[in-house]
Amino acid sequence: MKKTILITWWTGYIWSHWVVAFEEAGYKTVIVDNLCNSSVDTLDGIEKIIWYKPDFYNVDLRDKNTLEEVFKKYDFDWVIHFAGLKAVWESCNKPLDYFDNNIVWSLKLFEVMEDFKVKNIIFSSSATVYDSSNFWKWEWVDEKWITWNTTNPYWTTKFILEQILIDLSKFSWFNVMNLRYFNPIWAHESWFLWEDPEWIPNNLMPFIMKVAKWDLGELKVFWNDYDTIDGTWVRDYIDVVDLIDGHLKAYENISEWFNTYNLGVGKWISVLEMIKKTEDIIWKKINYKIESRRKWDLAEVFCDDSKAKNILWWKAKVSLDESIRNSWKFYNK
Ligand code: NAD
Ligand code: WQD
After folding, report:
1. Which end of the chain, N or C, is surrounded by fewer C-beta atoms within 10 Å?
2. Which residue range(s) make up the domain with 80?
3. What distance in angstroms lies between residue 268's CA and the mean position of ligand 2's atoms?
4. 188 pLDDT band (50/70/90 cuts)?
């Protein structure tokens, strides 16, 4: 019998890709989302790839009773929890909303998991938990670099949820795979799923694509006098396809207690280098101007992937050139 996985917050950009990969790998997925930052149209994209729609429930995690009804219907082996809101700037404007959405509602999910004795969980954390102001220059960040010295409420929610899950692994019986992603980019190779926010994007890659397509006038580069290769921020961009593969490997290697893995490439690129690279690959001019910095930005964040490499046997494979080329295929179609 197929193993069944409950996925919370699924129809977002990363997780719709993930559903496809798990269904293709032979697992049954059941999905809950309140559609606050997504639409059921993603189901049509998924159906075009795997030829059927996975089981979907419009559930708000605040509503514990409805969540329990879903747990009664299935014998879940796993929960994949991609806890909610993720815009750093918004979290600075509405911190309490972020604490409520990301932390309080997650507790409801953990309670139901405990009641139904579902003990395996993959949690979607973020490289946001690393404070690069602590780093030596050009240092790769490994899993022990986490710090409580958070610079924004979004980060705080990830930090606190990690701590809660550590305790649940010690004092309840949860087995936790805590995955910290670096900067995810790109879309599914089928071309039915992709990252194309209708509103003005927050993240660099979709913004660059929208400028290249002339949907937006110019990119604001958030400052250029940092102690980096050309003064602009340095990041580690990971293709969604590699990220999904990392989740499959995590799933196959679940062990007891709480385990954290970085999912990133281990290579860095600055904002200006990214602009130049994109121009060279897609043959379009990217207009930009230098603006003042965002108050939460960290200068250099790139991944030490040795733990995932050595224990999960996972390594990112997709090149940045390929990610950019594939991304442009979408935006240009
Ligand atoms: P997304 O905003 O595209 O998707 C989030 C989904 O959560 C949406 O479908 C939204 O409708 C749903 N949602 C939000 N609050 C909800 C609630 N209370 N009840 C039910 N559904 C709710 O985000 P994404 O990029 O797919 O990210 C998913 C996860 O990955 C998040 O936990 C995010 O913090 C984490 N993450 C994302 C990135 C990134 O750059 N995209 C990087 C690191 C970690
Ligand atoms: C990348 C680089 C910007 C937009 C955020 C979250 C992090 C994670 C991923 C969820 C930075 C620069 C960007 C623009 C710019 N999300 N930039 N102009 O800030 O690394 O991480 O998303 O967990 O938690 O903090 O990603 O794509 O916003 O920025 O100059 O219009 O591009 O300064 O150096 P970031 P990003």
Report:
1. N
2. 4-185+237-264
3. 13
4. very low
Instruction: Write the single-letter amino acid at 240.
Output: V
Cα 257 to middle of ligand 2, angstroms: 31
CA 178/CA 183 separation, integer angstroms: 16
In a domain, 114, yes or no: yes
| Lowest-confidence segment of 155-169, 182-196, 257-271 by average pLDDT | 182-196
Pocket mutation for ligand 2, best pick of 182, 211, 222, 272 (most atoms within 8 Å of C-beta): 222
Give me the number of domains the chain comprises. Answer: 1
- DSSP 8-state assignment for residue 136: P
Q: Provide the CATH number for the domain around residue 70.
A: 3.40.50.720
CA of 12 to the centre of ligand 1 (A): 6
What is the reported pTM? Answer: 0.92
37 close to ligand 1 (CB < 6 Angstrom): yes
For residue 253, being part of any structural domain is answered with yes
Per-residue pLDDT at 277 exceeds 50: yes
- Consecutive H or E run containing 187: none
| Mean per-residue pLDDT, 147-169 | 91
What are residue 290's DSSP bridge partners?
221
Give me the phi and psi of 254, to 5 degrees please: -55, 135
DSSP 294: P
pLDDT, mean of residues 92-97: 95
* Residue 107 within any structural domain of the chain: yes
Nearest ligand to the CA of 207 is 2
- Closest-CA residue, ligand 2 atom 18, reads 221
Average pLDDT over the chain, rounded to whole? 86
Does 119 map to a domain? yes
Under 8 Å CB-to-CB from 154, ≥6 apart: which residues?
Answer: 85, 86, 87, 88, 91, 98, 102, 128
Nearest CA to ligand 2 atom 27: 203
Residue 234 CA: distances (Å) to CA of 118, 299, 324:
40, 6, 17
